[in-house]
């Protein structure tokens, strides 16, 4: 039995560092450092939630290729259950080429297999192995998105609680029927900008107003300002555990989600969930990338203590 089943996108990141100039069509540049690692914000969420002590399994679609093997091995190393991964012959595993220039990055993504995961492939016998379902990155998974309401309904019919991080829409269409979807989502976890786009409003306040009649718990990530939670007519704001020496913010939102859900599944009150989410988001920002600060629970505990005076 798993605490949390994560349904999300899976890809490798091919990261080129120390590149001598910008790419130009018809020319060749050299990079002095290459890393091929597990990418995907759903994978960061799953890995860090496992490090925080939850039993986590993943449902995602990968190709029967070497990148797929890398994804699977990396998830296993992080303690995430991989037996429900869907392997396909029809598409290659997704990959993102990341060109790193100091603090800025240029990225090109081939979504591949992730685009083809369907709601049906998250079978009932998989759902019944978990207590909570977390879905992330819906705009990268159009086939899943089509029947997302049915997936959430099915999970709830088996007694699971549910959460959703919509993540960014690369097409910037923001086509998601929140009125239909949010009643079957227990915890909705957009960031500030995603909430505004999804609700076609110009502030978090108005965004929450637009969904409060049919949403359950809404936790909005607001970068270095912390987060805002709405539930049952009440709004809670919590400032961030401000990190003035940020390594980078890659994965901060996913780690925030992991912190929140790690407490939520233990039945903790919403103040505690939100506070811990902010802490885990802050811990994420102390090292480069989304998982470096989460090698093991002791490391997380010591960062929390030394950098943010927080005892886990
Ligand atoms: N500079 C920072 N110091 C401390 N915590 C931060 C900082 N930036 C982000 N966080 C934490 O990470 C969370 C998620 O960041 P945010 O950038 O809003 O999400 P996303 O990664 O989804 O865009 C924030 O709500 C906050 O708790
Ligand atoms: Mg995010």
From TrEMBL:
<keyword id="KW-0808">Transferase</keyword>
<dbReference type="InterPro" id="IPR011611">
    <property type="entry name" value="PfkB_dom"/>
</dbReference>
<dbReference type="Pfam" id="PF00294">
    <property type="entry name" value="PfkB"/>
</dbReference>
<keyword id="KW-0418">Kinase</keyword>
<dbReference type="GO" id="GO:0016301">
    <property type="term" value="F:kinase activity"/>
</dbReference>
<dbReference type="InterPro" id="IPR029056">
    <property type="entry name" value="Ribokinase-like"/>
</dbReference>
<protein>
    <submittedName>
        <fullName>Carbohydrate kinase family protein</fullName>
        <ecNumber>2.7.1.-</ecNumber>
    </submittedName>
</protein>
<feature type="domain" description="Carbohydrate kinase PfkB">
    <location>
        <begin position="3"/>
        <end position="292"/>
    </location>
</feature>
